[in-house]
């Protein structure tokens, strides 16, 4: 991230050569086709329809956003990320896919300034978001999302689940991911997630397994 948020290296700006070679697809964790489609199909099963408004928090270069922009009505997909070069990569992906006419709304923010979009959302998604954030950043994210969720809206978020709170040992996950309590990539316990939700004045449900190839678990937050 940038100098204000030194919690991981995600904010490194990609070079023009990296964007042209589509290395941005690796910068968001790879598995471009698999995980992008997984997100899309999951939200379809949860009831998202073309007329709904979707907020993609930590959208990166639109690994899932490409599918959602294609499916949703014009200007119904909104994505926010801290990394401007990844947003640029996403714009190039949209152009290559011939989806610019869908007018997806993309923005860059250092601290989850979601109210800048000026609307509320039926669905929000945070794929591989909490996995790169410490507690204070997660709380800020949840508070900002709460402000823009429809009364019946849902914020789906993935996380690496620890077996208990304050779990200090590193955990190895499928696909080679290794998570930690206090450094990127992060893991949290279900009890810690519930505590974070209470601070942000949100309700949370543990969905758990959703067939993620790296065993990230799914959460659902509501107002």
Would you kindly provide a written description of the structure presented here, covering whatever features stand out?
α5 links the parallel β2 and β3. By secondary structure, this protein is α/β, with parallel strands linked by helices. It has one domain: Vaccinia Virus protein VP39 (Rossmann fold). Strands 3-2-1-4-5-9-8 form a 7-stranded mixed β-sheet, sandwiched between helices. The chain has a two-stranded antiparallel sheet with strand order 6-7. The N terminus is likely disordered. Helix content is about 30%, strand content about 20%. The protein starts with 15 loop residues before the first helix and ends with a strand. The chain has 7 helices and 9 strands, in the order αααβαβαββαβββαββ.
Task: For this entry, give a set of tags.
globular; single chain; 7-stranded mixed β-sheet; Rossmann fold; 9 strands; two-stranded antiparallel ribbon; alpha/beta; 223 residues; disordered N terminus
Structural class determined from secondary elements: alpha/beta
Strand content: 15-25%
Radius of gyration: 16 Å
CATH superfamily: Vaccinia Virus protein VP39
Please count the helical segments. Answer: 7
What's the pLDDT, averaged over the residues? 92
The total tally of domains equals 1
Question: What would the CATH topology be?
Answer: Rossmann fold
Helix content: 25-40%
Q: What spatial order of strands do you see in the largest sheet?
A: 3-2-1-4-5-9-8
CATH architecture: 3-Layer(aba) Sandwich
Main β-sheet, in a few words? Answer: 7 strands, mixed
**CATH class wording:** Alpha Beta
Enumerate the spans where pLDDT stays under 50 for 5 or more consecutive residues.
Answer: 1-5
């Amino acid at each position: 991230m940038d100098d204000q948020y030194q919690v991981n290296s995600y904010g490194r700006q990609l070079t023009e050569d990296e964007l042209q070679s589509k290395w941005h697809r690796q910068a968001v964790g790879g598995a471009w086709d698999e995980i992008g489609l997984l997100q899309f199909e999951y939200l379809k099963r949860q009831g998202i329809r073309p007329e709904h408004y979707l907020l993609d928090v930590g959208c990166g270069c639109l690994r899932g956003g490409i599918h959602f922009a294609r499916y949703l009505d014009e200007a119904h997909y909104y994505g926010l990320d801290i990394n401007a070069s990844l947003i640029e990569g996403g714009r190039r992906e949209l152009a290559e896919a011939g989806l610019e006419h869908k007018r997806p709304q993309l923005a860059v923010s250092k601290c989850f300034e979601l109210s800048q979009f000026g609307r509320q959302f039926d669905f929000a998604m945070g794929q591989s978001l909490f996995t790169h954030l410490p507690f204070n950043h997660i709380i800020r994210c949840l508070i900002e999302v709460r402000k823009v969720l429809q009364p019946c809206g849902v914020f789906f978020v993935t996380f690496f689940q620890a077996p208990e709170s304050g779990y200090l040992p590193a955990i190895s996950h499928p696909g080679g991911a290794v998570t930690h309590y206090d450094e990127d990539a992060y893991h949290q316990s279900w009890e810690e997630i519930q505590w974070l939700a209470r601070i942000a004045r949100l309700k949370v449900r543990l969905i758990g397994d959703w067939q993620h190839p790296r065993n990230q678990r799914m959460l659902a937050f509501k107002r």
